[in-house]
Amino acid sequence: MNFDPTLIENALPSLLYGVRTTIWLFLAIMGLCTPLALLVALARVSRVRGLRRAAATYVNVIRALPLLVILYFTFYGLPSLGVFVSPFTAALVGLTVVTTAYLAEDLRSGLMAVPRGQFEAADALGLPTWRFVWRVLVPQALPVMCGPYFTRAIVTVKATSIASLVAVSELTAQSMAKVTETYRSVEFLAFAAVVYLLLTSLMAILQSRVQRRVTLP
Amino acid sequence: MFDTAPDAPLLEIRGIEKTLGEQHVLRGMDFTVRRGEVLAIIGASGSGKSTLLRCLNLLIRPDNGRIYWQGAEVGWHQRGDKRLPMAERELLPFRTRLGMVFQSFNLFPHMSALENVCEAPMTVQHRDKSEVRAEAEALLAKVRLSHRMHAYPHQMSGGEQQRVAIARALAMRPEALLFDEVTSALDPELKAEVLRVMRELAEEGMTMISVSHEMDFVRNVADRVIFMHAGRIAEQGVPAEVFADPQTPELRAFLGRAGD
Ligand SMILES: Nc1ncnc2c1ncn2[C@@H]1O[C@H](COP(=O)(O)OP(=O)(O)OP(=O)(O)O)[C@@H](O)[C@H]1O
Ligand SMILES: [Mg+2]
């Protein structure tokens, strides 16, 4: 079996378009689901029972459904409900809804690692809820959240490839298009694999950087 | 802020009851605390001392009973013959009148001693930053920690951390302080430096309610002691008299153990 790098060279513009789409999709998902998941995680540890229940229901329902089913719903289901969005947006919505649920669970474990005494001390001092969240709770939860957060980011980099099944021209879709066109698979799949490896490695490097910065004195 | 009566006791507790889980922890507590008084609360483990203290500043809400602050009821609104619980937000002005110090210090670990002390006065009372900082430095000096102002909790001994916690409570300019076994987690030498600060506060006329197993402190500093048993006041009075002549077998047993 021979490996012909010129194939990749010739297909490069199309492949790089896929890389760009993958990166944008990934960044958009993380940008949306990071604040959303933090809110869901905070709701899960809230004193307000209604909030706790609503957040738990969301997380449990989403976790119970296959990712692909949710993506097919946002791609085929939304238009049939009269909501017309681009394939990219449909994939973004579906992946964000799912990633938010999982990430919320990851972040909740960080929040629960903060000792009860911190809640009591803040209450006794009369710190308002949001002030407590930003000044006391989140800074102490960050070191614990950091690892699971980046693990989730790595899972999400790879999960973007599933958007190829709903007509998004991201890395996997563009590579497969070239496979179909040229009847050569190894070159393009290797290209895709290397790019995914680079992106996930980048996350791993970022993790160790961030971990060092957020670790408490 | 409150519809207060100047000659009323600072804090008055009537028939406080609390059930936690399956357990009827407080079964009706009544007492009053006058301004400047030092009240000690003793009792065996599990007798409900911490629960009582948390009810006093409404960190947890009693199921039954009333709490009066300078003559005005706190925690509930009376609407006709209905009693409606106050929202958390409405409790804050009252809660911050009472400072609280915990057995486990509960300092914010990512803030220096000075930041710990400054946090609440700035964000809760919205006081001027430089004024708060000056007062915080003075309070840290008062608890003999001027040299540790910029240290983080993990760099301090337990005794130092607990003194920062006292300074942090004082920074809110409270009218009374609640102490929950604040020396129980400390070695004897470290205990002494915390007890010294508490004794000084008492001498300055600070109203204090202290759950404590330090019998010397209770005997020498407290004006009154309450012995709790099974969620009720079993005995109370002037410490020297109560200790000299315990009326209940429970207190006799408790004093026997404490003397070891
Ligand atoms: N959240 C809770 N749920 C159920 N039971 C609780 C809860 N908190 C405390 N209890 C129980 O209530 C009882 C009284 O607890 P509390 O902490 O007030 O006792 P204490 O007198 O402070 O004891 P200690 O000297 O050990 O601190 C104990 O039996 C305890 O197990
Ligand atoms: Mg206790």
From TrEMBL, chain A:
Superkingdom of origin: Bacteria
Topology of the protein relative to the lipid bilayer: Multi-pass membrane protein
Pfam families assigned to the protein according to its UniProt record, in alphabetical order: BPD_transp_1
Annotated InterPro entries: AA_ABC_transptr_permease_3TM (IPR010065), ArtM/GltK/GlnP/TcyL/YhdX-like (IPR043429), MetI-like (IPR000515), MetI-like_sf (IPR035906)
Transmembrane segment boundaries: 23-43, 55-75, 81-104, 188-206
BP GO annotations: amino acid transport
Sequence similarity: Belongs to the binding-protein-dependent transport system permease family. HisMQ subfamily.
Molecular functions per Gene Ontology: transmembrane transporter activity
Residue span, ABC transmembrane type-1 domain: 19-207
Main location: membrane
Origin organism lineage: Bacteria, Pseudomonadati, Pseudomonadota, Alphaproteobacteria, Rhodobacterales
Compartments (UniProt record): Cell inner membrane; Cell membrane
Annotated CDD domains: TM_PBP2
PANTHER family: L-CYSTINE TRANSPORT SYSTEM PERMEASE PROTEIN TCYL, MEMBRANE COMPONENT OF AMINO ACID ABC TRANSPORTER
Species in which this protein is naturally found: Salipiger mucosus DSM 16094
Keyword annotations: Amino-acid transport, Cell membrane, Membrane, Transmembrane, Transmembrane helix, Transport
Gene Ontology cellular-component annotations: ATP-binding cassette (ABC) transporter complex
Protein name: Putative amino-acid transport system permease abc transporter protein
TrEMBL record, chain B:
ABC transporter domain sequence ranges: 11-255
Cell location: Cell membrane
GO cellular component: plasma membrane
Alphabetized GO MF terms: ABC-type amino acid transporter activity; ATP binding; ATP hydrolysis activity
Membrane topology term: Peripheral membrane protein
Short name of any one Pfam family annotated for the protein: ABC_tran
Presence of keyword Nucleotide-binding: yes
InterPro entries per UniProt: AAA+_ATPase, ABC_ATPase_HisP-typ, ABC_transporter-like_ATP-bd, ABC_transporter-like_CS, MetN_ABC_transporter-like, P-loop_NTPase
SMART domains in the record: AAA
Keywords (A to Z) from UniProt: Amino-acid transport, ATP-binding, Cell membrane, Membrane, Nucleotide-binding, Transport
Family in the record: Belongs to the ABC transporter superfamily.
Protein name in UniProt: Glutamine transport ATP-binding protein GlnQ
